[in-house]
Here is the input.
Amino acid sequence: MEILIPTIKLATIYPEIIITTFAILVLLLQVFPTVIGKDYLGYTSLAGVILAAIITGQGGASGEGGEAIYSFSNMWVVDNYSRFFKLIFLLGTGLTILISIKYTKDEGINNGEYYSLLLFATAGMMLMAGGTDLIVIFLGLELMSISLYVLAGYVRKRLISNESALKYFLLGSFATGFLLYGIALLYGATGTTSLKGISGFISEASFGSPILIMGMLLLLIGFGFKIAAVPFHMWTPDVYEGAPSPITAFMSAGPKAAAFAAFLRVFIEALPSLQGIWVDIIWVLAALTMTIGNVIALVQDNVKRMLAYSSIAHAGYVLVAFVSTDKLGVASILYYMLAYTFMNIGAFAIVIIIGGKGEEKINLKDYTGLAYRYPLTAAAMCLFLLSLTGIPPTAGFMGKLYIFSAAIKSGYVGLATIAVLNSVISVYYYMKIILAMYMKEPESSVQHSPLVFTPAMIIALGLAVYGVLRMGIFPSAYISMAQQSYLSF
Amino acid sequence: MMLLLAAGTAAGILVATTLIGPKKEFADKMEPFECGEHPIVSPKLRFSVKFYLVAIFFVIFDIEAVFLYPWAVIFKDLGIFGFVEMMIFIIILAIGLIYVWRRGALEWQ
Here is the structure.
């Protein structure tokens, strides 16, 4: 019997190998505490993330000029698209580790498992970005999701954290079921799980069989859940509110970007022939997601919950760019996800600082008069909120500009109008925090304990501020990077 | 003929026991039988969470066996490549074992 061993270019998965190795290493260091102190586990995993980012940035095994390199029987690809997304994930993970170091100590969850799970989730996200086969994408999605289920409930003694993990697990596995059923139906209709194979089959067969369309719809539901698009968003506020703040920051940046990465690749690469159908559905999803996310955020007093709804709304903006499906649309999604990673993790870093031990101060009233006590912190928060609103000179403004212009160029003026109107709505709730910080005197009735800043937290904040300003003032380098990423698609 | 004989014997024994055997009815006997468990109990049955741990360990090493058997069957065809790949797999599992061991998950107390 002849067995065909697939051609394997290990060099194409160096970043993933490094992340996985460090995840295992951190686990081992946890159980052999004499090797290095527990305090250094976070920095060890950070070293892994930086190493992986350097190798991804250099291109690993990808060809000169960013040509795509396929390996593992065409199940895996290293192209500019996946590299751009991987850098977003690694950036998100790096920032999350930095903002976690003090938090985990405060909450008594300073364990190797915490960082190990973060790194495993990152490895899963990277698999999602680089997979060109539905099975690989599913594998990555599960690796990411299962790690996140655990992380959401990592503060075991906090009831709301448990609730968050359980809800996320139940609803998440249900959504996974939808996704898997969709993959099965696509396989049934086309006889392959490879993205290229599926698109090839559909273009030859030249008819939309009901099974195929059913499969596509189920995939849409599965991905819609992971990116928290309305009406599959019901889990988001509860899970984001209950999860430990660094994990909420992480979930709203990395995994969401990963879900978009896989979503885009599957729909643009495998199902372009059905574009007429899914563009209309995503149009409706985008309009609903933006509107409901923004409108419900208006009435939130809990800042964490408000940011959860705002993250739903931001997924809606990204879906607007998805609808246009051309080069500018994809490039603006990449740009926006990068900008969103900076500004959202930055905002959550401030939420963590103010929240203090036990995350007790996460309501709007805890922010009153912050500018009088900590002007720099308030200024940073103000910058992140302005960026989330989309006001120049921040990354959020450029991101929204690219998204809206992509939508208008493709002729979706109506959707772009809805998006702009939603931007206006969002000003209200972001400004509410800024107003509280700057315009109100500190309430004397509220006990203020001094805020604690650690070096790691300051580095994370500095990076986020730098990223938001840099991408807002000099966006051309990033947008051309994002556009090159589409070329190799 | 054989079939008839077998069917006849079975039927005969059934009829004979129904006719001759003693019939005592008591509560436990009239319950549906399911592996010796009482069919109606409170669903809030408490048992140690450690059973879950054991179940999870079982799954891990069970899966290992699932992969090892097909590998062993085509071991010669895969050659050194297959050997190295499987060793990596087993080393990762072994690290998992070291982890649960050191973490004290294997101790019942």
Q: What stands out?
A: Residues 60-64 of chain A have pLDDT under 50 and may be disordered. The two ends of chain A are 37 Å apart (CA to CA). Chain A is about 75% helix and 0% strand.
